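In this supplementary section we document a worked example of the pipeline. Step one takes a protein sequence of length 240 as its only input; no multiple sequence alignment statistics are reported here. Step two produces a three-dimensional model, which step three serialises into structure tokens for compact storage. The input and output of this example are shown verbatim.
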Amino acid sequence: MSSTISDKVLKFPYVSLVHALRDLSGVARNETEGKTVDRSRTGLWLRSLLAIYDIDDMNRLDLAWWQLDALAEADRFLAARPQARVFEYGSGASTLWLARRAASVTSVEHDGAWHRRVSGMLGSYPHVTLLHVPGAIVGEATSAYGSGKGNAAGLDFRDYAHAIDGQGRFDMIVIDGRCRERCLDLARRHLAPGGIILFDNSNRRRYQKALANCGLAAKRYAGLTACLPYPDETTILSAP
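The serialised model returned by step three reads:
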């Protein structure tokens, strides 16, 4: 799940409390010293609750911020395709997770501070390209490439959505950033035969029309989600 600095500030009290509990418990320190992480579905979810908005901890856990069953399905998909090409809208822990499983990853990020943060963690992954494409300021004008995210009001994400153009076809495309409805329309045109699109937070009302009309078969995964104390949903789309 793409995360921005502003998102974290909005959720600061909860995040700070959870991180304090993690530090007091010594969980992360014990893992650094060699203690094995419980990688059962429930065990991994419980541990991930302490890693919310901490990309370093998520990276140590080898997790992407998706619904856990969808994450497992994506893992199986990539394991069967070691030469997979992946495109990702919205960078974060998922970028690092994908880097360990795909032959090439291209990710586009709108937030400059977050782009720098993630870029600093990609030194060991020369096969990953992280693009910075911010939204263009349009003020009060209505944009067909707007975002439903509150802090994105007045921004146009046309260039961001079209960052996938001219890059060929991809075996897997992740939509977990801004302007997701438009990104979905473009993504399906760049999907390789047998490929999948992973659409995160697919239970949000504003995405339902785009998902219903995209012409792809949808499998919705709802329930335990990395880092979240409540259920969420990730959908995997494929050609029928």
